[in-house]
Fold:
Amino acid sequence: MPILAEIMQAPVMPDSPFAPAAGGKLLAWTYRVSTFLLAAAFLATIVALGTGTDTDLPEAWLLLFATVSTLAALTRQLPAQNVILAALITALIGSAAHILGAKAGIPFGPFMFGSEAGLKLFGTLPWIMPLVWVVAVLNSRGVARLVLRPWRKVRAYGFWLMGLTALFAMLSDGALESFAAHAKHYWIWTAGGFSLTLPGAPLSNSVGWFIVTLLILAFATPILINKQLSKRSAPDFHPLAVWLGAILLCAVAAAMHGFWLAVAMDAVICAITAAFAIRGAKW
Structure:
C-alpha cells in the first residue's frame, strides 16, 4: 500500500495523445476507421431505438466499435501493450464481479441476466459485459483527466483521478439501466436490494460499480501512467465524446419508455460533466 500511495501521489507528467506509439501508422488508421464506424453505429442504434426494431445488431456493433476506438485512442498516449494489459485487467475484474453478482447478488444487488443479453461465457456472463466494463472505465478515466487537468501537479492528483473515474463510471452505469434493463431486458433486478433508484436499479448497484471501478484502477493505474517526459499536450476529447454519446443513447431509450425523470437526470449529468471537462481542457 505505501508503494501504491507513492504512485498515486506522484505528479503525472503530461502525455502526448496525438503522437502514436510503435506501429503508429497502423494504430492511427485503426483509430480513424473505428471512430468513423463508431459514429455510424451510434446513428444506426438511435434509428433502431426510434423505430422500435427488434434486432440487437446495431447495439452489438456499437459496443464492438466503441471498444476498439477506445483502445486505439489510448495507444496515442501509451504503448499498445500497456493499453491491452489495462483492458484485460478491467475486463477480468469487472467480469468476475458480475459473475459473482449473478450468483450471489454481491456487490451489485440481486439480479439475473436475460436471454436477450446473447451468448453467455461460462454459462453465466453475457459476452457484452467485459466490453461494457472496458468502455465505461477507460472512457470515464479520460473524462476525469480532462476535468482534473488544472490540478495535474497536485500531489493527490492520482487519488482524485481514481475517485472521479469511479464516479463517472457509476453515473454511466446508472444511465445504462434505462437502456439495458428496460429497453433491451439484458438483465432483470429482483427483490432484496437496497432502496431502488431510477429507473429501477437498487442503490447497491451504484455502490458496487464505484467500488469495483476503484479495485480495477488500483491494479490498472500504474500501467496507464505515461512515464515518458513530454511537453504540455493538447487535451484528448475522444473519451468525453464516447462517454457523452453513451449517456445520450441511454437518454433516448429512457424517453422511448417514458422515464422522463431519468431523461432529465441524464441531461443534467451530461451538461455538468461537459462544462467541467471543457473548462479543464482549456486550462
Notes: The CA atoms of residues 55 and 143 lie 31 Å apart.
